[in-house]
Structures are given as C-alpha cells and as structure tokens.
Amino acid sequence: MENLIINMVGDIPTVTKSWAAGTVLISILTKAKLIDENKKLYNFDLAFKKGQYWRVIYSLFDYGRLNWISTLDIILSVNYLSSLETSIARKTRFLWMISLLSAILIILSKWAQPLSSLGQLLYANLAYYKKRRDMQANLHRDWISIPLVLSCAAKLFAYPMMHFSLIQLTMEFLPGHLLFFLAEVMSRIYDVDLCEPPTRWFTREQA
C-alpha cells in the first residue's frame, strides 16, 4: 500500500504536486485551528487596500474543509491538472499561464466578489482551457464540445435566477477562454506568444 501511494505521488508533475501539497497543508492547518477560517476568505479590498495579502495565498490553496468531499475534489483536480501539465512542454510556461489566470481573476475580483476561492476558480479555468484546447484538436468530433457548451450555458442561464453578477459567473470560464485565445489563437495568427514567460520573449525573437 505504501509503495502504491509513493508511486502515485511520484507520477504527479512538480507544479501540480506542489499545489496539491499546499491545499492539503492549508486544510490540515485550518482543521487544527492554526489558521483562522475567516483569514482564508479572499476579498479584493481587504487584500490590497487593507494590506492583508495573505488572503491571496490562502485563497489560492483553499479547497474547503478537510473531509471526504474535499479530498475527492483534490484527487480529481490533481488527476486533471497532471494531464494538463504533462501536455505543456515547459514547467515555466505552465507556471506563467497560472500566473496570468491568477492576475485576471484578481483584476475581475475588484468589481465582484468571487463565489468561491481563487484556487477553485483557478482550477475551473485551467479545466476550461484544457477542454477548449481538446476541442480544437478534435474538430471532427463535434460531441466533444457538448459538455463544455452545456456547462457555460448553464452558468449564463442561471445568471438572472441566482442574483449573482455576470462577472461572478463568468469568472469560472472567461479567464480560461482568454488564456486559450492567447495561447492557441493569437500566437498562430500574430506570431506573438504571451503565454511564454517574459524571460523567453526576447530569446524567441532572436531565434
């Protein structure tokens, strides 16, 4: 059993493994009451106007209380993110894409309070990006796009009924769609790849 767990952990890519370890650590520290639940709640004004920057870090690794549901959530997320990370050539590119998504989410949160933690929103947008990219790679298989279209449509149709703002609802997929545009569309049309980390921009031009 121990060997199985070690092999499973060993197969997880570095960035995803670090994120998973962070979420578990935050959950354990919260359960042990070493971290106040209220300090994990992210709010733009509290974080950036009151100088409570730790809320950003806590929220990026916040997956709720440590229980069977959150544990299953983390396991499924790790499986999906591992698949995405291994499909991206360089870890620096993956980290930069995560940074871009986080920045977009934080900017949007200036105008609307997120409905879930930054970590959960970040995962939702990375999952959207992967599904959108898979759709592009399988254009001849129309059925692949159905779950993604239904998911986005359900969120938008829920907008007038649930009294959430449009920004709050689109936080779950709009940043991921922008990332897809930058990585898969803009880079091909304009030969500008903003999903490469800044350290590679000039190197790429010289090449």
Tell me what the structure shows.
Helix 5 packs across helix 7. This protein is 70% helix and 0% strand. The chain is mainly α and 207 residues long. It has a single domain, classed as Rhomboid-like fold (Up-down Bundle), CATH 1.20.1540. It starts with a helix and ends with a helix. It is built from eleven helices and no strands. It is globular, with a radius of gyration of 18 Å.
Record keyword descriptors for this entry.
DER1; Rhomboid-like fold; 11 helices; mainly alpha; Derlin; 70% helix; endoplasmic reticulum
Q: Secondary-structure blueprint of this entry?
A:
Layout lengths: L1 H9 L3 H18 L12 H6 L4 H7 L7 H20 L3 H18 L9 H20 L8 H17 L3 H5 L3 H16 L8 H9 L1
Shape: globular
Q: What would the average pLDDT be, to the nearest integer? A: 82
The CATH class, by name, is Mainly Alpha
Rg for CA atoms: 18 Å
- The SSE string, one letter per element, is HHHHHHHHHHH
Helix content: over 70%
What's the architecture, going by CATH?
Up-down Bundle
Terminal-residue CA separation? 49 Å
| CATH topology tier name | Rhomboid-like fold
- How many alpha or pi helices? 11
Number of domains: 1
The fraction of residues assigned to DSSP E strands is under 5%
Q: pLDDT under 50 segments (min length 5)?
A: 1-8
- Structural class of the secondary structure composition? mainly alpha
Q: Say how many strands there are.
A: 0
